[in-house]
Amino acid sequence: MRAYNFCAGPAALPTAVLEKAQQELLDWHGKGLSIMEMSHRSKDFVAVAEKAETDLRQLLHIPENYKILFLQGGASLQFSAIPLNLLGKNNKADYIHTGIWSEKALKEARRYGEINVIEAGTDVDGKKAITSPETWALSDNAAYVHYAENETIGGIQFPFIPDVQAPLVADLSSSILSAPLDISRFGLIYAGAQKNIGPAGLTIVIVREDLLDQSKLEIPSILKYADQAKNGSMVNTPATYSWYLSGLVFEWLLEQGGVDAIHKINQQKAELLYGYIDQSEFYQNPIALDYRSIMNVPFTLADAALEKTFLVEAEKHHLLNLAGHRSVGGMRASIYNAVSLDGVQALVDFMQDFARQHG
Amino acid sequence: MRAYNFCAGPAALPTAVLEKAQQELLDWHGKGLSIMEMSHRSKDFVAVAEKAETDLRQLLHIPENYKILFLQGGASLQFSAIPLNLLGKNNKADYIHTGIWSEKALKEARRYGEINVIEAGTDVDGKKAITSPETWALSDNAAYVHYAENETIGGIQFPFIPDVQAPLVADLSSSILSAPLDISRFGLIYAGAQKNIGPAGLTIVIVREDLLDQSKLEIPSILKYADQAKNGSMVNTPATYSWYLSGLVFEWLLEQGGVDAIHKINQQKAELLYGYIDQSEFYQNPIALDYRSIMNVPFTLADAALEKTFLVEAEKHHLLNLAGHRSVGGMRASIYNAVSLDGVQALVDFMQDFARQHG
Question: Is A224 in the active site?
């Protein structure tokens, strides 16, 4: 049987997607070979690749003046690729710091340009929150403003899109496709696939065309957005199987009713889990109400000594991967699109029983 | 039914490997989730990753003072990563030019250092060959000497490992694991996975430890061999599913008797195909005897106007992807490890019939 998988990434994929992939793994559409055994330039694969792009464009209502790139290397390689692509004409950028991932991004960017860091973390009644953009000391003339829309480890998420002058660049690795998004507000968004898109090894970059031609001289050619855009993300062989699987996830999302529909379910899931935590005296979430992530829910137990028991018992109930990130400890339930409301209900039921037994 | 697939890459994978992957796609070893849904840091995935590395080490007899890295981005990203990693102390390298891929590598390297290009292509009785290393004007003090051991497009391969002073760096994308290799002769070898290893999206780098700490300042952190070596190729999330599939291919290779055994079959395949081409008046291979690739066999027809008919007829016989690279035209049969002797026999039978009909 399939367990409930709360892994932060690589994360759960829809069972229906895996079943389809399984069915056509050895012989794709009667062609006598696997999709992963086909040239990326073959008519069949190009059709699969283009359909994935079209479906993603539809799902997020991506305007025509944005290119969608299917790249390799993970969001962490984008931490370098972004300044290398965008700081060639103007060497200055603002980075909003709200947690571990935005910090990694800004540390890497500092190696390539003049980086103005805005410390945007704050506390509200002992809970973590994000300061208002009006208080941010933004540069007059930054090439872009970067932020992590959802901090996967901290479980803190922006409830608004910052209104800034410079092009907005956002890491959406753990929140893309979880809720409607007004792409036209951004210069660039990027996301590692392994949360809401597909398997690890694929990275999506959505970039406004007018930002394509300002790369720095030292950029590795493969990382150049302009070249990848011109070549349909095939300057070299892309991660074809990951691209195909992501396409299956996009089809599945459209079948579910698209991003609006999945967002409603995501809201129900989040309300159920946060609602239970808030009324319990045994569990705690460290984030102020307005800034809670809809995808990653960190929580602690009243007695930290019970953590190991909690994880072992959870596993017996087929509730997997609930340990928090090794850098912060505690628990974390990642409730991405592929995690069902049933799964969250099963988790809450278990948490309730566990609290009763050990509280 | 499964066709015979002569694609140059992404290329054929062993049917047994795909069957195993298919069987455990939704539920890996009864754990209730797919291997692609697991954290790369989970005990289960780390065991899979380490076994793949151990098996590869065994297959190629890789000495202990070499690190094996499982990276993303393709061999083309290594065209930048290699100079960025190796030219930090000494900014000079020699590049041996024998075809399209070695040319791409040297063009990218020129962006980062002083590159001395050795034109090593030559003609022997109208057939392409490689000059002897004794004639090469190598630098006195290069940081490394780079060459492409097998030119996938040209179908030309080194019948020897060049004996040079500086550390030898070799692109083995299309020949790794096809024949025994004395790794101790190299400073670094690298290979995109999508020919003899696994699906596209994974790149293997095997690097001698003493070369790890000489990177250039501008290198993107994710590309730094020293950091990836220290972190078991997990500085960020690796391409976990590709890593797992490559591990299945390594297991399959060991079951076949290892590289020595597969090499014998590869020799039989090459002898069968080249032998038939050589005695035919209808087909031609452009490479001199000693320099023919054991993996990629380009050939032309007596009448180029028949190429389209040849491809259409071949497909009717379940012989797929025989078109040459778009940059050179003609035909090409890539006969990697996963292409069986039966497959090559079926190709030769078809070629014979086609020549009889159209010759």
Answer: no
Q: Are residues B189 and B320 in the same domain?
A: no
* One domain for residues A97 and A236: yes
Number of domains in chain A: 2
**pLDDT tier for residue B263 given thresholds of 50, 70 and 90:** very high
Amino acid at B337: N
CB B326 within 8 A of CB B182: no
Closest CA to A24 of A16, A15, A11, A33: A33
Contact residues for B234 (Cβ-Cβ < 8 A; gap 6+): B40, B41
**pLDDT confidence tier of residue A309, bands split at 50, 70 and 90:** very high
Identify the pLDDT of residue B1. 81
Same domain, B235 and B166: yes
Domain assignment present for residue B313? The answer is yes
Judge whether A272 and A348 are in contact, CB under 8 Å.
yes
Kindly tell me if the per-residue pLDDT of A328 is higher than 90. no
Q: Which among A94, A171, A252, A269 is annotated as catalytic? A: A171
Q: Do A2 and B27 touch (CB under 8 A)?
A: yes
Residues B104 and B192 both lie in one domain: yes
Is the domain of B204 the same as that of B262? no
Dihedral in degrees, nearest 10, Cα atoms A31, A36, A42, A43: 60
Q: Is the pLDDT of residue B202 over 90?
A: yes
Q: Residue A318: which CATH number?
A: 3.90.1150.10
Residue-wise pLDDT tens digits, A210-225: 999 899 999 999 999 9
What confidence tens digit (pLDDT) does each residue in B288-334 have? 999 999 999 999 999 999 999 999 999 999 999 999 998 888 999 99
Across chain A, what does the average pLDDT equal?
A: 97
Please give the mean pLDDT across all residues of chain B. Answer: 97
With beta carbons less than 8 A apart as the criterion, state whether B165 and B181 touch: no
B18 close contact with A: CB closer than 8 A: yes
Pairing of strands B296-301, B283-284: antiparallel
* Nearest-CB residue to A220 (from B3, B36, B80): B80
Question: What are the Cα distances from residue B57, in Å, to B63, B81, B177?
Answer: 8, 22, 11
Determine how many CB atoms are found less than 10 A away from the CB of residue A306. Answer: 17
Distance between CA atoms of B96 and B166, rounded to whole angstroms?
A: 13
Q: Judge if B107 and B201 occupy the same domain.
A: yes
Q: Do B3 and A33 touch (CB under 8 A)?
A: yes
Q: Which residue has the tokens 């609602």?
A: A275
End-of-domain residue from the set B199, B225, B255: B255
Give yes or no: residues B78 and B217 share one domain: yes
For residue A10, say if its preceding peptide bond is cis, omega within 30 degrees of 0.
yes
Partners of residue B201 in chain A, C-beta under 8 Å: 72, 201-202, 238-242
Residue B108 included in any domain: yes
Q: Is B217 among the domain residues?
A: yes
The reply to whether A46 touches chain B by the CB within 8 Å rule is: no
> What is the DSSP track for B93-156?
EEEEE-SHHHHHHHHHHTTTSEEEEEE-EEEETTEEEE--GGG----SS-SEEEEESEETTTTE
Measured CA to CA, the distance from residue A225 to residue B225 in angstroms comes to 24
Do A179 and A270 lie in one domain? The reply is no
Domain extent at residue B310:
258-358
Query: Does the pLDDT at position A326 exceed 90?
Result: no
